[in-house]
Amino acid sequence: MQPNNPFTWASGWKSPIYCDNRITLSHPTIRTYIRQQLTQMIQEVFGPVGCIAGVATAGIPQGVLVAQELGLPFIYVRAKPKEHGTGNLIEGDVLTGKRVVVIEDLISTGKSSLQAVEALREAGYDVAGLAAIFTYGFDVASSNFKQANCPFVTLSNYSALIKYAGDNQFISDSDVELLKQWRQNPAEWGK
Fold first, then answer.
1. Do the Cβ atoms of 160 and 138 come closer than 8 Å?
2. For position 78, which CATH number holds?
3. Distance (Å, rounded) from C-alpha 59 to C-alpha 105?
4. What does the pLDDT average to over 39-53?
5. Structural domains in the chain (count)
6. Sign of CA dihedral 169, 171, 173, 179
7. CB count, 10 Å around CB of 114?
8. Which end of the chain is more exposed for a tag (fewer CB within 10 A), N or C?
9. Is 85 left (phi over 0), alpha (psi -120 to 50) or beta?
10. CB-count burial class (<10 Å; 0-12, 13-18, 19+) for 118
């Protein structure tokens, strides 16, 4: 947490907090737990699928782990087509017509996730939905996913994170209040 030196997101928003799910990959027990929970959630919510697609870059390792657990093919979607070689936007053996679940590490506004969903649909995939580790729970994300007709599920969310951090004294009561204020209007916070 850095309220005096906020993080800048790709959207341009300033944030006193940064949720870096990539760190989980360095810890086998946590990595295994996330893989198992994502797999279970996908099976329960989306049912049978034929492929797993990761969103570049942080959704790639999580997606590979889930695809391996399910014994399914894996592909990933770049933010933009590769500027050399094949010029692919979707990497892997493109298996059009397959029912796919998209994997993301976290959802803020949903923009990059939904760009990947759209690319997959344009390539002929049946996108069942998206699964992620974490969501900030912004209304704009829920609205964007609803408009795109793409259901999504996550293992955790911002409210649970802040409650856990406060209850376990990782952050102070004043930090909790600051984080709640930021969450109310993140687009304007820090300006």
1. no
2. 3.40.50.2020
3. 5
4. 97
5. 1
6. negative
7. 22
8. C
9. left
10. middle
Q: What angle do CA 163, 146, 142 make, to 5 degrees?
A: 20
Collapsed DSSP state (helix, strand, coil) of residue 92: coil
pLDDT tens digits for 117-128? 999 999 999 999
Phi, psi of 89 (to 5 degrees): -95, -35
Instruction: Kindly give, in sequence order, each residue whose CB lies less than 8 Å from that of residue 115, ignoring residues fewer than 6 positions away.
Output: 77, 79
Q: Please give the distance of CA 91 from its chain centroid, rounded to a whole number.
A: 18
Q: Provide the residue range defining the domain that includes 128.
A: 20-157
Q: Residues 142, 147, 190, CA angle at the centre, nearest 5°?
A: 45
Does the structure show a pLDDT above 80 at 25? yes
Decide if 58 contacts 24 (C-beta within 8 A): no
Q: Does some domain include residue 122?
A: yes
